[in-house]
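Q: what sequence does this backbone want?
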């Protein structure tokens, strides 16, 4: 009986081999769990989230996502500056709420005389956006020839890019531009690009000028030539 017991006890070398196998199995099992091979575990998800966040912050730093300087001395530079502003705003704007580059740039060019109007140079307002609140920083058109509050004024913005941001907000929220939003939604649903020349025809309430859409389309075609140089 004693002899059998002695034979059933593993030798030291066998114990060592057995221990290595057990340890190896544990290591493999942990590796599988840690890598999320069987299913994503919380530790892996947190690690991936952290890694993604670090990559995201790194990309932001590389892009230097601060509001770009809006400087220009000619029409081509005006187009370039407007595009940089739109790029900056689009980074934080979902595709379904974006307004086409050409449409924004063409309207800004028409409304501000390619950034040379008094409202653009003194008030950073590229679109003639109005305010009906006397407390909002504003300018009064010189043609009105009055210093008292006439009931409305042209808004003053901290920067030209801020006026572009407000224009985009109006396109997405103001009841007057519901037709624009519906056409944009349909274009996106059809899987095509947003056609500025068609979308601009929905903005009949943006200006009282009868041929406003035609004027903007002329500038859009001009901008396309400038874009080839950018």
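A:
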């Amino acid at each position: 009986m004693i002899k059998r017991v002695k034979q059933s006890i593993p030798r030291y070398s066998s114990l060592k081999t057995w221990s290595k196998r057990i340890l190896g199995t544990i290591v493999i099992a942990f590796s599988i769990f840690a890598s999320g091979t069987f299913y994503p575990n919380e530790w892996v998800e947190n690690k991936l989230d952290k890694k993604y966040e670090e990559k995201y912050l790194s990309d932001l730093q590389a892009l230097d996502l601060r509001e770009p300087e809006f400087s220009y001395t000619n029409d081509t530079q005006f187009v370039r500056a407007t595009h940089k502003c739109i790029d900056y705003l689009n980074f934080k704007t979902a595709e379904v709420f974006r307004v086409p580059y050409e449409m924004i740039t063409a309207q800004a060019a028409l409304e501000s005389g390619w950034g040379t109007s008094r409202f653009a140079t003194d008030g950073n307002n590229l679109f003639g956006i109005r305010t009906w609140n006397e407390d909002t920083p504003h300018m009064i058109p010189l043609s009105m020839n009055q210093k008292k509050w006439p009931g409305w004024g042209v808004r003053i913005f901290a920067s030209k890019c801020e006026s572009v941001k407000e224009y985009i907000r109006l396109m997405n929220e103001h009841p007057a531009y519901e037709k624009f939003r519906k056409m944009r939604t349909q274009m996106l649903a059809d899987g095509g690009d947003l056609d500025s020349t068609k979308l601009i025809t929905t903005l009949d309430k943006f200006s009282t000028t009868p041929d406003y859409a035609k004027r903007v389309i002329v500038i859009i075609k001009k901008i396309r030539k400038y874009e080839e140089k950018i």
